[in-house]
Amino acid sequence: MSHARSHSSLVERVTRRLRHEYARRGQPLVWSLRYGLAPRQPRALLTFGGGIGDHLLCTGVFRALRERGERRLWMMSNHAGLFRHNPDIDRVVPVHDFFIDLARRAGARYAMLNYTRHIKDEDRDLPPSNHLIVNMCAAYGMDGPVAVRPFLHLTAAERAAGRIAPRQITVQSSIMAAAYPIGTKEWYPARMQEVVSGLRRRHSVIQLGSPDDPPMEGALDYRGKTSLRESAAILSQSLVFISAVGFLMHLARAVDCRSVVVFGGREHPGQSGYGCNENLFSPVPCAPCWLWNSCPYDRMCMQRITAGAVLAAAERQIERAGQPLPVDYAEVPRSVPEMGIER
Fold first, then answer.
1. How far apart are CA 91 and CA 201, in angstroms?
2. CATH code 3.40.50 for 44-147
3. How far, in Å, CA of 74 to CA of 288, rounded?
4. What is the pLDDT tens value at each position of the chain, 343 positions in all?
5. What is the secondary structure of 243-293 as a DSSP string?
6. What is 156-330's CATH number, 3.50.40.10, 3.40.50.300, 3.40.50.2000, 3.30.1440.10?
7. What separation in angstroms does the CA of 221 have from each of 204, 210, 233, 243, 251?
8. Which residue among 10, 14, 57, 143 has the highest number of C-beta atoms inside a 10 angstrom radius?
9. CB 335 within 8 A of CB 341
10. Integer CA distances (angstroms), 333 to 65, 70, 150, 191, 327, in order
11. DSSP string of 103-147, one letter each residue
């Protein structure tokens, strides 16, 4: 048995080494042949160093660039499913220094987008003075009005497959399984259960999210069982989505699904939300704080938002089902102090 384990360990080490060498040398060689000799190299390569929600927000920047006549726009992301069928993006490539070098050799613009600055010692972000998408457009150097929304394009077949049950509503019970969990965004799963219990009498409730999210009794459990695009399809066929601030909130807006979003006081809806949603914000004196985890006031902003308030907001959104979602527009400012932008 000892010999067998030793052999298995050797095979694993050799396999890891081969994979490492392929990623370091072999894969860039393949990309050189595929992209380096291509006649239509990028004019702009965009990316974002944050989580999947930040990459989805980049689609708002691409739409603004396309509306300004820009072409040969590439996105560097390991979440290619976000951008499939998107007419505003000409190519999606993996995150790798090879593509940054390729863009620079082609004389293309390379932009690592952002929307604020993180203060690590204080466990917070600087509150953005504009919507996240607007700040991202400012970071690129744009002027003029932009649509404040992300975009995800589903096929008709994908949308049809997203209809799981009659009069479906979608919920997420927690945002703490995110790649970058922020405790001050979290609502209370017990209160979400009250919401689910109140809605399931007349609606089919579907739960999306991570397998580690608290399960909701009475909901159809799709936690961890759907791909990114399958989740988007379910949202596209839902009367309303209910959650705290997180990736699925942005995904819902990208496929024109109404939402009820529990903001509390960490962020203001005007900074990261959408006007077509029911955004539950607590205007306490310290809000919006943009703290990540430690709150000196025991998150009183979240405590103030009751299950009854969320239920009432959900009913209002359900009554609006079938009506087009209005799109917010905002002017890109020439000055963004929290990002050090002065033009």
1. 45
2. yes
3. 34
4. 455 556 567 557 756 765 665 565 668 777 777 776 666 789 999 999 989 999 999 999 999 999 999 999 999 999 999 999 999 999 999 999 999 999 999 999 999 999 999 999 999 999 999 999 999 999 999 999 999 999 999 999 999 999 999 999 999 999 999 988 999 999 999 999 999 999 999 999 999 999 999 999 999 999 999 999 999 999 999 999 999 999 999 999 999 999 999 999 999 999 999 999 999 999 999 999 999 999 999 999 999 999 999 999 999 999 999 999 999 999 999 999 999 999 8
5. EESSHHHHHHHHTT--EEEEEETTS-HHHH--TTSEEEE---TT-S--BSS
6. 3.40.50.2000
7. 11, 11, 16, 15, 19
8. 57
9. yes
10. 16, 20, 19, 39, 19
11. HHHTT-EEEEE-SS-EEGGGTEEPPPSS-HHHHHHHHHT--EEEE
Residue 156, token pair as written in the block: 């008709």
Q: Which two tokens stand for residue 78?
A: 């390991």
